């Protein structure tokens, strides 16, 4: 092979290699766990948090990849950057997590609160207002927001084995109010319990509001840049109304 031809061929392959490396540099990889409707391994979009994160990165020219694991395994792989850049989502931020990760701007918060029947108006501003009523809860759940310490003050406690049974309990008038994950309940009412959708409503304000964050390990390359790209994309989704469209597309609101 002539020297000029070799140089041309070498330059061609170096261009391809550089392009491939640059393209790979625009890929961010995350771990997460199955927790529908937020994070759903069985749905095509992966749950609405996954969809929000993917689209936020896409606005900045990044491809987002995610793999589902049991939660403890997801944390270990993300923290040590073992083939992944980070994890979503954290519901609490503490000193240890701030030491190990660069934390994003907040995603939509999880909300736990009370639901009632539409045809049974109940005045509610604070939990004390509901003590005269029958409260429905799921067996074994810890709810927070002061509920667990005060639940015996309700007129009576009615227990269901799962969240879907809890919603049906309210519809069947076996409880006056129920305490549930707002997004999960609305997801079920708009998808699998459509016959009950117009019968049940959420009671503002929420009892517990829990922030959610994406986190990129400080052991991966350019963690600050990867979080900054996500934050910029997240703002675009919020400002454009796309965030609300994603929620509606996942049977919420």
UniProtKB/TrEMBL annotation:
Position of the signal peptide: 1-22
SUPFAM superfamilies named in the record: Periplasmic binding protein-like II
UniProt keyword Signal present: yes
Domain named Solute-binding protein family 3/N-terminal: residues: 31-248
Domain of life of the source: Bacteria
Keyword list, A-Z: Signal
Name under which the protein is recorded: Amino acid ABC transporter substrate-binding protein (PAAT family)
Originating species: Aestuariispira insulae
């Amino acid at each position: 092979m002539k020297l000029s031809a070799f140089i041309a061929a070498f330059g061609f392959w170096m261009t391809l290699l550089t392009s491939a490396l640059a393209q790979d540099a625009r890929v961010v990889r995350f771990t997460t766990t199955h927790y529908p409707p937020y994070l759903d391994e069985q749905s095509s979009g992966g749950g609405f948090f996954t969809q929000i994160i993917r689209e936020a990165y896409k606005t900045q020219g990044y491809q987002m990849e995610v793999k589902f694991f049991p939660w403890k395994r997801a944390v270990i792989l993300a923290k040590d950057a073992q083939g992944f850049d980070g994890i979503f989502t954290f519901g609490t931020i503490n000193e240890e997590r701030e030491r190990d990760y660069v934390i994003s701007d907040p995603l939509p918060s999880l909300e736990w609160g009370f639901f009632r029947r539409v045809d049974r108006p109940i005045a509610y501003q604070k939990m004390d207002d509901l003590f005269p009523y029958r409260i429905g809860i799921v067996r074994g759940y810890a709810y927070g927001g002061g509920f667990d310490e005060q639940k015996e003050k309700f007129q009576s406690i009615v227990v269901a084995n799962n969240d879907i049974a809890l919603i049906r309990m309210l519809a069947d008038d076996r409880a006056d109010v129920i305490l549930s994950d707002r997004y999960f309940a609305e997801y079920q009412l708009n998808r699998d319990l459509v016959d009950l959708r117009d019968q049940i409503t959420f009671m503002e304000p929420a009892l517990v509001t829990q922030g959610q964050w994406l986190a990129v390990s400080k052991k991966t390359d350019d963690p600050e840049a990867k979080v900054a790209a996500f934050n910029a994309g997240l703002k675009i989704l919020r400002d454009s109304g796309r965030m609300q469209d994603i929620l509606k597309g996942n049977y919420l609101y």
